[in-house]
Specification:
Elements lengths: L2 H87 L1
């Protein structure tokens, strides 16, 4: 066997191995990776949605609390003014 024919034979064998590996990748591994990527993006999207909803709920709760505190404060001021008016009227 000449040197050139050995090189050609080795090249053909190597090409067959690479082709088999590529076919295995396309058949088994790539679809699995693609499905994992879709699953991860779905999880990430739902996680972002949960964070957004939690942030909105927190903002809503803090706004309600601030309004409640303000309402109490205004009612205390009104009560104080009413008492002062009663004291002046006596």
């Amino acid at each position: 066997m000449t040197r050139r024919s050995r090189m050609m034979e080795n090249r053909r064998i190597q090409h067959a191995k690479v082709t088999a590996h590529r076919m295995r990748l396309m058949g088994e591994i790539v679809p699995y990776l693609r499905s994992r990527r879709k699953e991860m993006s779905r999880k990430a999207a739902s996680h972002r949605l949960r964070i957004k909803n939690a942030w909105r709920k927190s903002l809503e709760n803090s706004t309600k609390h601030m309004l409640d505190v303000r309402r109490k404060h205004v009612s205390k001021i009104a009560l104080h003014k009413k008492r002062l008016a009663e004291m002046r009227s006596r």
